[in-house]
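Good morning C.,

I know you're traveling, so I'll keep this short. The sequence:
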Amino acid sequence: MKTLLLLRHAKSSWGQPELADHNRPLNKRGKSDAPLVGKLLRKQGLVPERIISSTAQRAQDTARLVAEACGYEGEVELRQELYLSDTTCYMDILHNLPDKLDCVLLVGHNPDLQELLGMLADYDEPFPTAALAQIELPISRWQDLSEGTDGFLKNVWRPREL
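The tokens, ready to paste straight into the viewer:
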């Protein structure tokens, strides 16, 4: 059994319209929501063994704040391909994970995360910024993950509920 945690980046700032989308930072709410998610992970005993994030500034900032708050001791792995991608990209990254990892957190963007949730856990509700989903996957090797994998959506947390 593998645990996949999917986290949509926290709320970003639109205060600097001259910035490219990739470079937008978190806004005040985003900076407060991300640590709440990290504290939740620690409280739930879900500190990931690896955190992989999009290179977009808002995703990196979210991943860093979550990592600090949950007590994650590794480096956040940054992956350019998670920015403006699709579910195939996410699946490729997951397929190449070492099997010794049982709990992984991906920090990315919509609509990709929502589509991945729908594919793996039959989830079709809105997935707002800083939302976190916990999916239990009935696989022992990441390379066995497929579009047909029937994952169990154990939890979805939204920042307003934390």
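Safe travels,
E.
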